[in-house]
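REVIEWER CHECKLIST
Item 1: Sequence provided? yes
Item 2: Single chain? yes
Item 3: Sequence as submitted:
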Amino acid sequence: MTITVRTTTSATPDRVWTVLSDLRSWPDWLPTVQALEPAAPDAPDGVGATYAVKQPRLPRARWTVTDWAMGRGFSWQSKSLGLTTIGSHELRGGSESRTEVELTIAWRGPLAWLARLAYGPMTRRYVQSEAKALVARAEQVPAR
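Item 4: Structure as written out by the authors:
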């Protein structure tokens, strides 16, 4: 059970990665993230990093980075009884003047059907909003 949103931006892949990979700044510009707190504030972002994430109309969740491909994207997951939620953020087909972004939420486990039923439409709106906000931010923030 997966929700995928794809979009394209005129921002370079480096610029999009700079915005996307700065997880700690997400609450500043991403309307679907109210708070994001690293479990180990001094540890670098990357595989194994864990965050407490609060989103509107959702309970606080613990997300752990499971894949970190510098400049190309990352995946993380949140587990609860009977359900694993997997978020994937990928940059593809980039050139110096165009980047394709793919954001995905997938539910796995015996309660995946219930998550899709209860949260499917809201999650699709959230992921669409996140893609739009990422593009807007990447197109306005200079690359580091």
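Item 5: Key structural point noted by reviewer: The chain is about 30% helix and 40% strand.
Item 6: Recommendation: ____
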